[in-house]
Backbone:
């Protein structure tokens, strides 16, 4: 075992402000909205003048950038989605005709394959990149990261937009360890060697890594120095029960982050209050819409996230339908910040299960399973169609030391599921370590419903 290192020395007097950009972060709602409107108008002009795609779309809709007089006017402009990005990129290689700068101004690209294979490219100018890293530093600062920290960034660096977020930690002065995605034994070695005080990974992996450490005789609470874990990529980081399990394993605080492969590595992150994720509202404008009707939903209600970049010059995204079901608040946070907060990512529009007409997300089930100490927290949803009706089975594992009869456990979860989601499910309680352990992006849904009329 490594000797415990002394704390990281910091040169000079570190800022003791809770804010990275105090004036911006605490401005009034009116100031945020005025700023958004001004940025949006300039951004629409830039897109219309420089991107063949937007010029065509706006002309076809009979719209000009000047038609945006209020924030509400944005809803008249057409939306687009990932399929459009893919199609326009194939039509006009390399960057697609949503790009609004010539390739020589592009200095960085990320790419993401999504589920259908062809990677879509997200370009940045040097200025876009610099601005992005500055607000990543701001998000990290809000989560309590400081120059005194040793920060291990355990995300993929290969064209993945989450990779460069490490530069935000570096910008604020933390010792930044570009760990990447390495086997868990190697990552544990890195965490011990550098006595990392902060770590970024996915929620499933934080859980898995903590359990792996314990199996190898390393107690993360005692043998490692990690006090903050940033997580993203799955809803788990905003599910209190999941966060609690990871925190118990590590003796660390978990901060949820939200990023998008075609936009920015992190668009929002939790402050020390950890009640919602502060949105980088000076870079991305948010709409939350009913996925069926397209009408805006009330604050706090669930709807599809539609976002608009405000200053990313290389490729503006105007009314990009993300496919995530989210909820937001504009209430002032107890930390003093006034930016919009993402209250939760409740699932993908695609993951939204409709069981006999009732909407349910895997995250609804996750919260219930992880709240019950007699379960290990692992789960899987199996959806089948029996006699032309949808049937949901929830598979869970009981803990090795649980004394409760299995039938009682199943009945208890069945009752909670019915009460919370309105869906009647079959619950199967399995022995511990039966379900496949997810390492990175967890696949916990097995939808076996095929064609409508399979018998
Ligand atoms: Zn806050």
Residues:
């Amino acid at each position: 075992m490594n000797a415990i290192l002394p704390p990281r020395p910091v040169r000079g007097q570190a800022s003791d402000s809770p804010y990275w950009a105090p004036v911006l972060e605490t401005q009034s709602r009116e100031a945020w909205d005025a700023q958004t409107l001004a940025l949006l108008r300039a951004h629409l002009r830039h897109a219309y003048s420089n991107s063949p795609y937007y010029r065509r779309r706006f002309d076809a809709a009979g719209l000009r950038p000047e038609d945006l007089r209020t924030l509400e006017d944005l809803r008249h402009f057409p939306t687009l989605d990932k399929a459009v990005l893919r199609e326009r990129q194939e039509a006009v290689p390399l960057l697609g005709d949503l790009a609004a700068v010539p390739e020589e101004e592009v200095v960085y690209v990320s790419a993401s394959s999504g589920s259908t294979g062809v990677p879509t490219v997200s370009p940045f100018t040097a200025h876009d990149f610099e601005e992005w890293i500055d607000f990543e530093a701001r998000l990290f600062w809000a989560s309590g990261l400081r120059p005194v920290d040793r920060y291990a960034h355990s995300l993929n660096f290969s064209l993945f937009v989450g990779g460069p977020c490490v530069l935000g930690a570096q910008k604020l002065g933390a010792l930044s360890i570009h760990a990447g995605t390495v086997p868990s034994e190697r990552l544990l070695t890195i965490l011990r060697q550098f006595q990392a005080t902060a770590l970024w990974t996915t929620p499933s992996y934080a859980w898995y890594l903590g359990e792996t450490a314990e199996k190898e005789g390393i107690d993360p609470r005692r043998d490692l120095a990690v006090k903050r874990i940033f997580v993203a990529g799955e809803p788990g980081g905003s599910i209190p029960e999941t966060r609690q399990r990871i925190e118990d394993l590590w003796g660390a605080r978990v901060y949820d982050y939200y990023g998008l492969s075609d936009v920015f590595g992190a668009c929002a992150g939790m402050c020390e209050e950890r009640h919602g994720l502060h949105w980088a509202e000076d870079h991305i404008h948010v709409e939350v819409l009913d996925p069926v009707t397209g009408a805006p939903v009330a604050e706090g209600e669930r709807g599809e996230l539609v976002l608009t970049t405000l200053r990313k010059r290389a490729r503006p995204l105007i009314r990009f339908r993300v496919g995530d079901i989210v909820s937001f608040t504009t209430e002032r946070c107890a930390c003093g910040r006034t930016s919009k907060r993402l209250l939760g990512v409740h699932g993908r529009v695609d993951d939204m299960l409709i069981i006999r007409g009732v909407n349910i997300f895997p995250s609804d089930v996750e919260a219930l399973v992880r709240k019950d100490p007699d379960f290990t927290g692992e789960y899987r949803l199996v959806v089948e169609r029996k006699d032309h009706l949808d049937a949901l089975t929830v598979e869970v594992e009981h803990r090795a030391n649980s004394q409760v009869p299995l039938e009682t456990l199943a009945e208890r979860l069945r009752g909670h599921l019915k009460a919370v989601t309105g869906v009647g499910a079959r619950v199967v309680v399995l022995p511990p370590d039966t379900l496949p352990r997810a390492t990175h992006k967890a696949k916990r849904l097995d939808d076996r419903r095929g064609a409508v009329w399979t018998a």
About this structure: Residues 18-349 form a domain with the Rossmann fold fold (CATH 3.40.50.12780). The radius of gyration is 23 Å.
